[in-house]
Design brief:
This protein is α+β, with helices and mostly antiparallel strands. Among the domains are: 298 residues, Immunoglobulin-like; 133 residues, Orthogonal Bundle (Neutral Protease, domain 2), CATH 1.10.390.10; 98 residues, Aminopeptidase N, middle-beta domain (Immunoglobulin-like, Sandwich), CATH 2.60.40. An eight-stranded mixed β-sheet has the order 6-5-9-3-2-12-15-14, with no helix packed on it. The chain has a five-stranded mixed β-sheet with strand order 17-18-19-21-20, covered by helices on one side. It has a four-stranded antiparallel β-sheet with strand order 10-11-16-13, with no helix packed on it. Helix 2 crosses helix 3, helix 8 runs antiparallel to helix 9 and helix 19 runs parallel beside helix 21. The relative contact order is 0.07. Bound molecules: tryptophan and zinc ion.
Length: 883
């Protein structure tokens, strides 16, 4: 068994901090071989702590203690105790100052947590518990202090010295060194601390807040990337304006800085006034960034900016409350994208990713509530459940309370808790006060894991002209959470006339027909509820869970014929899209289950419905692309008991081949109709057209006999002036193993070998190919000069894409993918446990698969869990998978 500490932290054990930190001054001497950190803190006993504790316990990991003084007097080793995680002073006065100097080694820190080096930069990542790798401190979010930071470094190599807040002073020192002094007026938890030092250039712009305060916006990047910041800056301005208009929230410091770094474990970090970003979410020009890169930059910049109010001004009391800031901030960035772009497109994409990632997590061994009750390693809880299901829970409140009441609830939340570290209850209570509704039953969404299942039956009585709809909800019990209690589920619905497609007035029994609504939100609170709608002479087409009004699995009462009808007719854009998804899903899963005895044959009715959608005049290009996208292998695996990814792929490709063949002329016509002549532009309209055009190309290439399409794709790659169109042509050529692919790949490699973000695309195209030699290729690419086995972006692009994206190859029945992953973990886990644990996540759903794969996956987890010295991160994921 593993020799790792398996200590579990529980929400139920929360106690307030024994000591508070009023101020902390940090003096950081940056150096390539050893960095000295001198802190001076003023602490006092917490009057609200349950016991009057004289002992002071600070967190600290991998720190060398150089010196410690209490109220100016040096402490000998007898004056404190030190273990691998803590520094403890047995006895301290009511108020005191503590001066601590530590020595740390950012140059060998590959975990990218705490202070580390990224190429020529020094930078930090403190969320969740990285500050304790910089100095000894009560490293918990409910300890909020005022920070001042003095940075000192060699001037030539580190001309720029940044930290949170306002720059107070800077200047030259002896020996070619210089310093900068920063002060952050807002008390903050240590996880929001940041510093950056290096040779950076700044792309800046002015902003005036709604109340007229000037702010300087700065994007800091390596000098060679100075020309790639315009989109990031524009996105920041847009986000700031939107938060003022939609939520009445203004920015609160004189500067807002964003720094792009190359080595980063996640997307970006909302450090107060000094966001640190993964470069992929900052840098963009048409030559190297795709349309989706542009879109991602806008939404990640928005997300981090929105944290200034939901996360920084109001933060979490403890890490169990993570969704208080993350779920709410994801909700806010989704609303931003919906408001500045297309609301239906945004909704469909958010649900696509919820179903592809969150539903599987919620159905597997690492399932946990939006507010978990316990964890081994908090870094494992930055999950799609906490983020995306958390956002859905906030969205349900909006649906249940209405837009105005919801906004009043938000205003009250900000007014009550500004400057505090609070719990999910504080948020719910503000909503409850604003609405006057009892949200007690609703709050169960935060405590109960698992995706509820709704089964709906309908029965029409032509004589009584009544439609009866029965809704049954089932919540399976899940490991650590309350079992199977019914939830409050907002079920948005309408009834459509089959001929006119018009929505019918919804009159429940006992209601008057006057002013009957055409859409309603039923509040399902019990395990079984029946609704009876009057004045329905003919069986209507039911439109249920419109807009995906709750994060549930819906067992639809619609027949395949009705789904085909809804795919062309539902007046809710989400449901129209989803009807196509459900129909395709039924056909594909049934087709895969029938293999190998019954070869798959695409139903003609599906081809007809697909063709109708393809030519539908009332879908814009972006919506059309979504409407005709078949469900991915990931969601199909979840829908197939004893899943066989190979069979699913075979069936899905056979369907695509048939569509490509039968609809060839329409696909070609749509391709031609959606060209975007002239220079590359980033607008919703242009992106929509490029998406549809490239979708057409991809589908045409699913027909192996279509050599014309292959030539079109190759020409597009050669002639394009932007990365979106180059990828649009190259991806299907590589993925179908066409002879043109190799030469084009070589040209791309030659052109972009010095641009890591462009090379990431080159790596991931190849890792994603559903071809027999892909694993061998990935292994070969791991020794490519542009690959770096310690850089998270490279890892994600190559081996991450293979293990988590290319499900057909990864799940090869031989088990080769699983063995490959095991070896990766052996190499990576000692250096970067966060990224390693994430990769282990590729194995957790082993119970979902057919016996051969299931057994091979379980063996791989067995091997991983017993690796000597395995990190707490990977151990938690692996061991939970076996439980
Ligand atoms: N708070 C960050 C966000 O969602 C997430 C994050 C950034 C993070 N860096 C991290 C989470 C490192 C865990 C580890 O915006
Ligand atoms: Zn966030």
């Amino acid at each position: 068994m593993s020799d790792k500490p398996k200590e579990i932290t529980r929400l139920a054990d929360y106690t307030p901090p024994a000591h508070l930190v009023e101020t902390i001054h940090l003096d950081v001497h940056l150096d390539e071989t050893e960095t000295l950190v001198a802190s001076r803190m003023t602490l006092r006993r917490n009057p609200d702590a349950p016991t009057n504790q004289r002992a002071v316990r600070l967190d600290g990991r991998e720190l060398e203690l150089v010196e410690i003084r209490l109220d100016g007097a040096p402490l000998s080793t007898a004056g404190y105790t030190l273990d691998s995680e803590h520094l403890t002073l047995p006895d301290a006065p009511e108020r005191f100052t503590l001066e601590i100097t530590t020595r740390i080694h950012p140059e060998t820190n590959l975990s990218l947590e705490g202070l580390y080096r990224s190429r020529g930069l020094f930078c930090t990542q403190c969320e969740a518990e990285g500050f304790r790798k910089i100095t000894f401190y009560p490293d918990r979010p409910d300890v909020m202090a005022r920070f001042t930071v003095r940075l000192e470094a060699e001037r030539v190599r580190y001309p720029v010295l940044l930290s949170n807040g306002n720059l107070i002073e800077s200047g030259a020192l002896e020996n070619g060194r210089h310093f900068a002094l920063w002060e952050d007026p807002h008390p903050k938890p240590a996880y929001l601390f940041a510093l950056v030092a290096g040779n950076l250039s700044c792309h800046e712009g002015p902003f005036t807040t709604a109340s007229g305060r000037p702010v300087t916006l700065q994007i800091w990047v390596e000098p060679e990337n100075a020309e790639r910041c315009a989109h990031a800056l524009a996105s920041l301005e847009k986000s700031m304006r939107w938060d003022e208009e939609r939520f009445g929230r203004e920015y609160d410091l004189d500067r807002y800085m964003i720094v792009a770094v190359n080595d980063f474990n996640s997307g970006a970090m909302e450090n107060k006034g000094l966001n640190i970003f993964n470069a992929v979410y900052v840098l963009a020009d048409p030559e190297t960034a795709t349309d989706s890169n542009y879109e991602d930059i806008e939404s990640v910049i928005a997300h981090e900016y929105f944290h200034n109010w939901t996360g920084n001004r109001i933060t979490c009391r403890d890490w169990f409350q993570l969704s208080l800031k993350e779920g709410l901030t994801i909700f806010r960035d989704q609303e931003f994208s919906a408001d500045v772009g297309s609301r239906p497109v945004e909704r469909i994409r958010d649900v696509q990713s919820l179903r592809a990632f969150q539903f599987p997590e919620d159905a597997g061994p690492t399932a946990h509530p939006v507010r978990p009750d316990s964890y081994m390693e908090i870094n494992n809880f930055y999950t799609t459940t906490v983020y995306n299901k958390g956002a859905e829970v906030v969205r349900m409140l909006l649906t249940l309370l209405g837009k105005e009441t919801f906004r009043r609830g938000m205003d009250l939340y900000f007014a009550r808790h500004d400057g505090q570290a609070v719990t999910v209850e504080a948020f719910l209570d503000a909503m409850q006060t604003a609405s006057g509704q009892d949200l007690g039953p609703f709050s169960r969404w935060y405590r109960q894991a698992g995706t509820p299942e709704l089964t709906i039956r309908q029965q029409h009585d032509p004589d009584a002209e009544v439609l009866e709809i029965t809704v049954m909800q089932q919540c399976r019990a899940h490991g650590q959470s309350e079992a199977g209690e019914p939830l409050v589920i907002p079920l948005a619905m309408a009834l459509l006339d089959r001929d006119t497609r018009a929505p019918l007035p919804l009159i429940l029994e006992g209601e008057s027909p006057e002013n009957a609504p055409l859409e309603r939100v039923l509040e399902v609170t019990r395990p079984v509820v029946t609704y009876r709608f009057k004045n329905i002479p003919r069986p209507p087409l039911a439109s249920l869970l419109r807009g995906f009004s709750a994060p549930v699995k819906l067992n639809s009462p619609l027949s395949n014929d009705d789904l085909a009808l809804a795919w062309g007719a539902d007046n809710d854009p989400f449901n129209r899209w989803d009807a196509g998804q459900q129909l395709a899903m039924r056909i594909l899963v049934e087709g895969a289950r029938a293999l190998p005895d019954h070869p798959f044959a695409t139903p003609d009715s599906f081809v007809a419905a697909f063709a109708a959608t393809l030519t539908s005049p009332d879908l814009d290009p972006a919506m059309k692309s979504l409407a005709i996208t078949l469900p991915g292998i990931g969601v199909l695996i979840e829908a197939m008991p004893e899943a066989d990814p190979g069979a699913l792929f075979t069936v899905r490709e056979s369907l695509r081949r048939r569509l490509a063949h039968d609809c060839r002329d329409t696909l070609l016509a749509l391709h031609a109709a959606n060209l975007t002549p002239g220079p590359y532009r980033v607008s919703g309209e242009a992106i929509g057209k490029r998406t549809l055009k490239n979708f057409m190309l991809g589908l045409l290439l699913a027909d192996p006999d279509n050599d014309l399409a292959a030539r079109m794709a190759a020409d597009q790659v050669r002639q394009a002036d932007n990365m979106t169109d180059r990828m649009g042509g190259l991806v299907p050529l590589v993925h179908t193993g066409r002879p043109e692919a190799e030469e084009l790949l070589a040209a791309m490699e030659h052109r972009w070998r010095d641009n890591p973000l462009a090379m990431d695309k080159w790596f991931s195209i190849q890792a994603m190919a559903p071809l027999p030699d892909t694993l061998a290729r990935v292994q070969r690419l791991m020794s490519h000069p542009a690959y770096n086995p310690r850089n998270p972006n490279r890892i994600r692009a190559l081996v991450g894409t293979y293990c988590r994206g290319n499900l057909v190859c990864f799940h090869d029945p031989s088990g080769s993918g699983y063995r490959f992953l095991t070896e990766l973990i052996r190499d990576l886990d000692p250096h970067n446990p966060q990224i390693a644990a994430n990769l282990v996540g590729a194995l957790t759903r082993w119970r979902q698969f057919e016996p051969r794969r299931r057994e091979a996956m379980r063996q791989a987890i067995d091997t991983i869990v017993t690796l000597p010295g395995l990190s707490r991160n990977s151990y938690e994921i692996a061991s939970k998978s076996l439980a």
